[in-house]
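Job type: complex structure
Entries:
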Amino acid sequence: MTAATPALVVDDDMAARQRRTRLSRLAQYGFLALLFAFMATPMLVVVVFSFDANRFPAIPWGGFSLKWHRAVLEDGMIADAFLNSLKVGFGTAVISTVLGFAAAYIDYRWRFRGQSAFVLLVAMPPAVPVTILGMAMLAFLSRIGLFGTVEAIMACHVVLATSFAMALIRLRLGELGPEVEQAAWNLGASPSVAVLLIVVPFCKPALIASFFLSAAVSFDEFMIAWFVGGVHETLPVRILNLLQGQVNPKINAIGTLVLVVSITLVLLAQRFMRVRTGQPTATA
Amino acid sequence: MQESDSNAKRPASSTGLSRRAVLKAGAAASSMVAPSLWLPAHAADPVTLNYLAWPGNADATIVGEFEKANNCKIRIKEYVGGDQMMAVVNQSPPGTFDVVMADAEYMHLLKAANFIEELNPADYPLKDLWPEFQKFPLHWFDGKLYGVMLDFGYLGISYNTKMFTPKEVSSYSVLFSEKAKGKVGFFDWYLPSMGCISLSNGNRPPFDLDAAKFDGLKKKMFSLKPQAAGFYTIADIFSSMTNGRAQLIPGIGEWITLGLRMDGVPVDTIIPDEGGLQYTESLSIVKGTAKRDLARKFIQYSLTPRAQVAMATKVDNRKSIPSIPGWKLLNETKPKEAEILRMTLKGPYVMDEYKAKKIQLRQLPQKQSIEDWNDAWGQFKAL
Amino acid sequence: MSQTAEATRGDAVRPAARPGRWGLGAPNYAASPAALPTVLGLPVLLWQLVFFAAPLAFLVVITFWQVRNFRLEPAFVWDNWSRILGSDTFHKALAHTMQVSTITTVLALLLAVPAAYTIAFRLTARQRDIAVAALVAPVFSSYIVRIYAWQVVLSPQGIANSLITAIGLPALPMLGGAFSLQIGLLTLTLPIAVLILVFAFSGIDRTLVEAAENLGCTRLNVFLHVLLPAIRPALILAATTTFLLAFGDFVSPMFMTGSKPPTLSILIVDTVKSGSQWPRASVVGVAMLAVLVVVVGAGRWLGAERRPKAKTS
């Protein structure tokens, strides 16, 4: 906690200050609680109403029912979409982690002409609105004949996810002093071996976090997948199409499923990257 | 030094790198294993029939029997609005789709895009249809048949029965009333919405307008902006009529309100005095399909009485069906539904409006381009 | 791209070549300076070029093409540009989108700063981890479905109004206007803004805070004059990220307000869906990018480190 000022104050003043502090603390915690309530409300509504027997989510509650969850499990299109999402997500996670590591390591180890341009090229995609990105990718890919495949979705998701992966891994690399690799070279390792045997294991938490984060990014991404996927839908695209095309009581059930998967992925990623406070440390 | 020279000549991929390369290749390979639609050597067991249609038309209740009987799988690509259909059509290489369900007024565009095949009238039970539909003009080009009617419906004003009486909504002018301010929803597709507003301006036929009448239509439409509640997707139409956000929506019909009403929501559709539109959904075989026989069988199946009844009683979007044996079967097996759908064989029924000439076929704009109408719609939304 | 890789950190020491110590082959230093970075960098570079840079460049190219019969054809016409840039619809959508995004940014910052402060300074480490997890989770959990859920809460007969009418007040029209739109956009942007600021606050050197307090600063003054300036780059980052996200969103405007009025992204989707007017949609897209570049550029200029003129006290 913070250091107290020298005790040259009268008791009354101190008590008043303590009261004020307690009030302001209460206000801060209360505000935080409200904020989290705000963020949790839609997720709660989704989960709760996925068990509503009503066709259209409305008040009053229509009674508890598992039928929508059952319907979701039996729906072929949703199953296909889910499978596509898994394929795309896994592929994206693997490739983005690899590419993100490559980009982060290059930025960390060397200084060269065009470095900031290179880093910008990798870091920029999330800054472009997905509608524009999706449209551009569709137009371009259909021109070169790659449109409408699951692979195309994955390739485009990698563009997005690599940015996050690079940022995460670069953060971790910032904690690796140059002397570690130099020691390895001194002991006779070639630079590539040093990378493989020293740097990669050092970055393991960041690599794993990038993996799950990239999977999560891909799993929830709907705009690019909608543009580029053609006949192949990923799960978010299925949801978007359901919301555009018909009423569907299954939406909340699907939403619950998606929430569970996304949250799991994110928590797994988070487990490996923690928030450290105070002084940023310089060594591993 | 000799050694370093020879090292210099060695390719960059020393053994240190090979592991990463293998990893990468493996990852790429595993992700490429996903079966792609473009692979012609598709293991056809079961065969997939690719269907381009409005949402919800590949439900198990409608196509399940066909899938089982023919050991195939119907894979649907959904679109909302004929323009979206045309976009998909023009972006997909031949062979992507086998069967297409199109709104009848788009058929000539499909034919012009060389997308659909000629059909043999003898293959299909056209005589089973109501006489008005047997030689449906939008399906025939140069005396050749290109599409078969699957279902139809009327579009007028859907309204909240608790807030508006049938008398109040008997004219499109109710949309402009003070009571409707901020409560008029719109289906976010220019064609039916502008068609109904055109009818309200007294234009018959509503899509064949000269420049002056088109200007008049735009003016009338823009004057509706203060009344608008929003421009909705289909799902939002359902939810906005359910939760009260919108109390009047022109340009839609029983395909929305019937399902809602049966679920207890107080809504109904009326064909106002100025008239209503008829939408027609038709099936065609796509050119370049490798499964022509299966596609033909699917269309034939869709016209059987059982399939027609399934289409009429689809859970959320109920349609009117053109097949007379279908009507008969409906009355035999689901008389209550037949009554609700107004497809009983005696008493007031769906064909009445048609016969009373209150219905105009929904068409594409005749004198202006689709773009002009679409732009007007975009302007209306942005007002 | 000419990439002259000068290995700055490692090349200072160049050991003599010996037989590979890990049995993986002799180290080939002569080859490595160019080989390793190229092998690492080339795939990334190519991937980004092919799947990111090229599509965007192509987008600009398309703005000059034409569409005939729903088919995209190469051409060189200014028609698309003049049509869109001169169209009322575009102007209105641009104005609306800018206004809405600005409001969201302001709201998000106002809400995120106190929240981040509380999380970074007033929670234990364990609580902080939970808080961060609770913030990160929504970022990747089906934004569309969450917006749809807000409809259930905010609709005229929804959850919120049921509570309100239950205590006797008249039902409020919450859905369909700016209020619900901001709720939707904040759902999208607030978690990220808070996260950025939490990381920033966490990285502040605590001794600075102690020093300020030792010098007699009240907590409020510490906050205003020490903490906020210290996280200025993060504030700018949070602001620009929020603005970017809100500017490009189309789900909230579509489902919360029924596209009334449409934002620029809705304009793009509409233009593409009906008649596949790719060139026109591309014009809107390029215009959006231009606006964003200006806004982000302004943000970075604002956030650029300025040498302090004089140090007082």
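Summary: Chain A touches chain C through 104 residues (CB under 8 Å). Residues 75-272 of chain A form a domain with the MetI-like fold fold (CATH 1.10.3720.10).
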